[in-house]
Design brief:
Blueprint lengths: L13 H15 L19 H7 L7 E2 L3 H15 L7 E2 L1 H17 L7 H7 L5 E7 L4 H9 L2 H7 L6 E9 L2 E9 L1
Parallel strand pairs: 2-4
Antiparallel strand pairs: 1-4, 3-5, 4-5
Helix pairs in contact: 3-6
Amino acid sequence: MQILRPSVRPVMSPRWLSLLVLLAMVAVGLVAPPAQASRVPAELAASSADAQADAPLATTIKWSKGGYKRGNQAWTNRVRTDRGLRPLTVQSCLDRRAEQWAYRLAARNKFSHQDLGSVLRDCNLNGVSENLALGYKTSRSTIRAWMRSSGHRANLLQSRNRKMGVGIYKGPRGYVVVQLMGW
């Protein structure tokens, strides 16, 4: 026995209905229109092709160069010196590469490691490691989380490391942190 059901066609497509509801919410003041955020500084843009690929989401990110970044560097050196290891110094090449990668991850709403071979060559290093974090609100909470993970902890406490670079951007899912360390 077959059951026949009448086909129901919506009067308005779900996409149009969603747009209409959003516009009504903006009009009533329940939702604010998106704010204009700062774009990546020119010195961090890797190429025009990357910039074009990032352009659609670039307004959703905010550049975080201040306290979070300095805090990440300070907490990294604190956990190292507390264990008798040398503090790391900031290397401009590692810093630039970390900032570029953090920007790309935030702009594309992705979360993955970069090709460390190119970092090794570009920054003229013998070894390099990378720690990533997503969604932590403070540098201290980021370092604490890394210290609870054996792989991240090993990177932080690698005795051969001498240099570091940190990139932090706020994207749709929170702060994206990229930390590169090398020797």
